[in-house]
Amino acid sequence: MEIVETALNPVPGAPNALKLSYRARRDGFASAHWIICTFAAQTGIGRFELTAIDTDRGALSDIKLYILQRWGLDDHPPALARRPLLRLDARTAYWLQQTLNGIVMAGVYGLIATGFSLVYGLIGRINLAFGEIAVLAGTNMLVAVGVASQFGRLGPMALTLSLLTGAAAGALASWVIGRLVVLPVSQRATSPQAVLIATAAVAIVLAELLRITAPDRVNWLPALLNRPIYIAGTRGFIATATPAQLLAAALSLFGAAVLLGLIGLSRFGRAWRAHAQDPLMAAMLGVPVPALRSATFLVSGAASGLAGTIVVLAYGTISPGDGLAITLKALISAVIGGIGSVPGAFLGAALVAGVETVWSSAFDIAYRDVVTYSLLAGFLILRPGGLFNRAAPSPREF
């Protein structure tokens, strides 16, 4: 029998439950099923304690649930099957797990926040379509994976080409939006709100196009590199990570290093910093402004595209509804870090991801976004220049 996961969603009215939808195929016939797992708590270590199971064929009895907990969950997992690499107490291991999870989100927010900073640093405008560009890139990666899978088993080369396809799709989409929307609107309207409105419209168009093309299905990355690695802990709790999650975290750090090196050391970075500080003087000294703008749109789009592929790699899929949330969190990261600063974008992303991770792990996750947006309001009131204390109208230095 072949079992394929199709969706994982929260259960309305049951904050401690998750609904897993899957498709089972046997002898050429496929059927859809679902299972709802209820846990002891919404936060803390209790969120990993299974307390009830309901399925499309009925709920598990107490006896069956006990058998599953005693022999299906306790003896199989890490504690007896494999020893963790490090021995830590359960609480420390739990927070190590949350740190590992937060690294991926910090990378996603940071890469897209860099897109905001690069465009804003160059022309003083904000492109609200970067979140949907990331979703478009992730979707293209999934399409490329699907095409590659038709020619055999998906290997490292095919996965690498799929990642590059996603990043390239993000770069191309950003360049097109920049040339056809951002630059023309910013040149014809003195108010920055015009670009905000135009790019918000573009984001809606992209989201709807992606939603319409896949109305009744969710694309998932095949189960790749999903065998868990038991990192640290004891029998009470063991921090784990899959090779796919570690690869996603590594790509996040690699993308951050490349962007920081590009801005700080390359010819493009010197030209970008010169134009950000004094556009007229940069043009007089021979900086090719049209080429610089095109390169900026390509680089910012590639960063957002890489973020979209990282989401797919870490979580298995990405959907059109994810674009708005990613855009807002990345924009908050850019503002907190000091919009127009590339290092500030990553620093702000680390802070936002850290606050989200800590709150989700220790408190009611329903209030997570309230805390995040309150953090933005606090920075705008108390430190409007961001962590680097640089006001937006000032020259945007590296």
TrEMBL record:
Membrane topology, from the record: Multi-pass membrane protein
Keywords in alphabetical order: Amino-acid transport, Cell membrane, Membrane, Transmembrane, Transmembrane helix, Transport
Localization terms from the record: Cell membrane
Keyword Cell membrane: yes
Spans traversing the lipid bilayer: 103-123, 130-151, 157-182, 194-214, 246-265, 297-318, 330-353, 365-382
Pfam families, sorted: BPD_transp_2
Family membership: Belongs to the binding-protein-dependent transport system permease family. LivHM subfamily.
Protein name stated in the entry: Branched-subunit amino acid ABC-type transport system permease component
Organism, scientific name: Ancylobacter amanitiformis
Lineage: Bacteria, Pseudomonadati, Pseudomonadota, Alphaproteobacteria, Hyphomicrobiales
